[in-house]
Amino acid sequence: MIGCHVGRIFQVTMAGGSYQDGLTAVVQGHPPGMLLSEQEIYGDLLLRKPGADELSSPRKEPDLPIIYSGLNAADTIEGAGNKNHTNGTPLTVLIPNLDRHFIHIKQYQDTNRTPRPGHASYASFMKYGPDDDAIGAGIFSGRYTCTIVAAGYVAKKILKACGIEVFSYVKEAAGIRCPDINHDAALKYSDNYKQMRRDLDPFYQEIYVKNRITPEMRFLEKMKILAEVEQEIDAIRGKAPKMEPKAVQEKYNVHPVLNCPDIDTANAMVKACNEISKTGDSTGGVVEVVVTGVPVGLGEPVFYKLDAELGRMLGIGAVKGVEVGAGFAVKDMTGFENNDQMHSEGGKVIFDSNNAGGITGGLSTGQPIVVRLTVKPTPTIDKPQKTIDKYTLENTDLAAITRRDPTIVARIWPVAENYTAMVILDHLLAHYGYQTLKDKYVTPLA
User: Which 3-state string (H, E, C) describes 179-210?
Assistant: First the structure.
């Protein structure tokens, strides 16, 4: 299988599947000297894992990561203080599957003859044959996106050190759209929401805050703990810190379920999603990603345009459209309306609008980069659908008996955020190199 690798300088390779032993992200191109821990990676993984709230699948995967390679196992010399720092070698993050019991495998075995409409079931069977990893959809399951979140967190941490912020939120769900929000306010809301999720996540508190897994432990010691956690998933979930929705809003100023920076809109989104879910159906939505602090000129022409590279996020399962800036709305504008006019103010270039989404000609303009992803409804639904037996080609009906999400948009925003970070960092590394060489040869302007 090819297609599981991305990046030119900051490179990520993923492997694994929904019901295999786990998934893996291998990261290359990150700098040495960065302190990194499983706890901080999990702080992002918990944002997309299933079973966390009423809008996600009831599957109870904790998504606890293990850093297997790429960190110094000890100080390189006594007192160096560089234990658990990245050392420049490939960084490998393992994410074991801990909630894959036979009852769930049997559900897939009972329905795998009949491809799920809207899913990759039929096409992957025709491509890979009867040995296709069809249990839980294998590599085509949304579970593979945990590798993007893990690798993208590393990219995001590096970008933050360079003054670049990447954040995202749910812009639309079940036809309910969030009004435009000031970027500073949206970033603050997103940070508060992430803090709330860490504070109330039982695995974050039980495994990391209580030091059941620490950076000082060896790989096998950590795996022993995960073997224990596999038997304790329900017990740990039962220890989740309890806080009423009203108390969550008062303490963190966020919605308790949905990362949408307008709480009234978030309430309406959740209500609409639940109403649709009650009928056995599902719904889609839109995720918005914003990047601030990007230098002017990031990107390349023609095949590696920055906006084209961000368009790679069509590779995220369930994403059916990617737009930058005004996106598809430009079809209804005139050139005068669409053009982002500019003026000089205090020695700086100021744009009067941002219909380009911070990118022109494939290069960043220095404005915030704004990207939106259209997310389709969850294809696994609890309604009879027409399908076929993929072995006999007989016509038949299918209704889901497997675990499913009422909507995927509530879990895709951290995937989009961290995928964007990977793209931006890959271009930033090339940009820094290019600018360093350019400054050695280009004659300064008079």
Answer: CCCCHHHHHHHHHHHHHHHHHHCHHHHHHHHC
DSSP state of 116: P
DSSP 226-239: HHHHHHHHHHHHTT
Contact 147, 95 (CB under 8 A): yes
Cα gap 423→10, rounded to integer Å = 8
- Write out the two tokens for 141: 């399951």
Domain annotation for the chain: domains and CATH numbers: 5-441 (3.60.150.10)
Handedness of CA 412, 414, 415, 419 (dihedral sign): positive
Query: Is the separation of the CB atoms in 252 and 263 below 8 Å?
Result: no
Each residue's pLDDT, cut to its tens digit, for the chain (446 residues) gives 688 999 999 999 999 887 788 999 999 999 999 999 999 999 999 999 876 665 666 668 899 999 999 999 999 999 999 999 999 999 999 999 988 766 677 777 777 788 888 888 888 888 888 887 777 666 777 888 999 999 999 999 999 999 999 999 999 999 999 999 999 999 999 999 999 999 999 999 999 999 999 999 999 999 999 999 999 999 999 998 989 999 999 999 999 999 999 999 999 999 999 999 888 889 999 999 999 999 999 999 999 999 999 999 999 989 999 999 999 999 999 999 999 999 999 999 999 999 999 999 999 999 999 999 999 998 888 888 899 888 899 999 887 655 567 888 999 999 999 999 999 999 999 999 989 988 888 776 66
Q: What is the DSSP string of 6-26?
A: E-SSSEEEEEE-TTSSEEEEE
Residue 159 DSSP SS3? helix
